[in-house]
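Same chain as my last thread, 319 residues:
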Amino acid sequence: MADRFPIAVSQALEGLGTVIEYLEFWRRRHMKNKKNWGETKERFLGWWKHSNVDRPLMKIVAKRKTPLEDLEETWEAKTPEDKHLEVERKAINLRNYCRTHDFLAESFPTLDINIGAGSMAAYLGAEPEFSWNTVWFHECIDDWGKRGLLKYDPDNIWWKKHLEAIRRGQELSKGDFLVTIPDIIENVDILSAMRGAQNLCFDIMDEPELIKSYISQIDELYFRYYDAFYDIVKGEDGGSSYTVFSIWAPGRIGKIQCDYSAMISPDQFREFIVPSLRKQCQKLDFTLYHLDGPDAIRHLDALMEIDGIDALQWTAGAG
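reply #2:
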């Protein structure tokens, strides 16, 4: 009997290892509020590889006749800032939504925690103004000569608040939903928020090399912020989701853009923006370019010359 005991223990441990591996496999393929999560991830991967041929990706969310579980008690945000950054309330509202809705096809539940679109401007010194529907940024650069280099500030109040909010959201998710990478935004769009769109138009004409240097600084800083968020929200398979357009990918994903492109020529776009986008694409695994409105269509040819852009999303604009 004693001779057989080590063998029995060994077999038990082997069996335990198999169970743990299966549980890990099951957890990666399932989400409490998304029945076909494994299949959904496979379809997204096929979409990125341009190999889905039977149908397009679809986001379908259906309201249930009765909730799956009792709803949690929630409350209304007291201030516009709370509406955007009160993580506990946002998580409760999302869990209640999941209990009353079914996520079909390639839809999936996400917790989006944003300080507006372009929060990097706040990390670099622009004061955000919260409203009930959006967030605006106050210009903070009157004179480039006085500004100096753009630097990462770990003690910036809005960076610390945003990082803590994302971290808290991930703690509350418990595998029930994904916490997305927030809408940091990049290149000239950040400079426009900090300097003002009209002022930047003159700067591009009067001091092109100076503006290029600041775009390069934005390029470097972007990944100081992106990497910190990604490290918090990434799945065990390295997968991540970006806050807009309901996209997921098995790696470092980003929605990239230049809404300011509506104000510049195709030549200027190639000179100022394309090099920045190329650098960004090199560091991301999967990218979707957000082409904003009819005035941005003139840059489509330049965008198609960037090999690192995997997908294109077009917002048609009013009318």
